[in-house]
Backbone:
């Protein structure tokens, strides 16, 4: 092979590499906003299911478990639910905008992350005013199919109801007051229980228990995740 052939092959490879990079960048630029919007919609839908009796879900703040952005919320009852119709300046469409007046917290919802076997597991947990877990939901993960992905199943998530932070401990085998591990997926079970959920509940207690209901309750319109009657 001559020097000329080597140069030609090198140039062709560089061109292919650059074109491939540009194509990937183009696809990412097109799909990233769509993926972001979809993830936001999925999270808002999940928030509405965490405490169905709440009329309004208000964001209270942010925190960073495992250096990942997460949020926590107050689940509220409204003294008055004011509904107005507004027009979207971009689309021209009208939509209902709801404002919660004289809001009262009936519980809290926290987003968390647990370090699993092959991924960081993104969870939501709702608690009552005593910081007792009411419900847990798994938003995203990449755990092993057929083993770790059992964390999404209802039979496992039901094990959290009624647990305090002290009881959020994984046990191999049957247990009444702790959380039974998924067979063959103890690491994933612990990631959800002792990392994602427990640390989230502990953070809520530290932030909110001393001051009672945090003053920063948002009755505005940006974080109106419903549900409403």
Residues:
């Amino acid at each position: 092979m001559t020097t000329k052939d080597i140069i030609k092959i090198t140039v062709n490879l560089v061109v292919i590499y650059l074109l491939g990079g540009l194509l990937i960048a183009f696809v990412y630029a097109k799909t990233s906003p769509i993926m972001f919007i979809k993830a936001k919609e999925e999270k808002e839908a999940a928030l509405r299911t965490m405490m169905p009796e709440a009329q309004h879900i208000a964001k209270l703040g942010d925190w960073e478990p495992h250096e990942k952005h997460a949020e926590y919320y107050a689940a509220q009852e409204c003294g008055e639910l004011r509904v107005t119709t507004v027009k979207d300046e971009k689309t021209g469409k009208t939509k209902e905008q709801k404002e919660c007046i004289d809001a009262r917290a009936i519980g809290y919802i926290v987003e968390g992350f647990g370090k699993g076997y092959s991924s960081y597991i993104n969870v939501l947990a709702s608690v009552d005013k005593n910081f007792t877990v009411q419900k847990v939901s798994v938003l995203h993960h990449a755990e092993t199919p057929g083993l770790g992905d059992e964390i999404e199943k209802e039979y496992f998530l039901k094990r959290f109801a009624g647990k305090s932070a002290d009881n959020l401990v994984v046990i191999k085998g049957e247990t009444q007051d702790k959380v039974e591990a998924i067979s063959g997926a103890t690491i994933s079970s612990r990631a959800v229980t002792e990392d994602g959920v427990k640390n989230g509940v502990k953070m809520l207690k530290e932030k909110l228990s001393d001051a009672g209901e945090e003053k920063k309750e948002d009755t505005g319109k940006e974080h109106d995740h419903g549900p409403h009657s």
Notes: The mean pLDDT is 86. Residues 3-50 form the longest helix (48 residues).
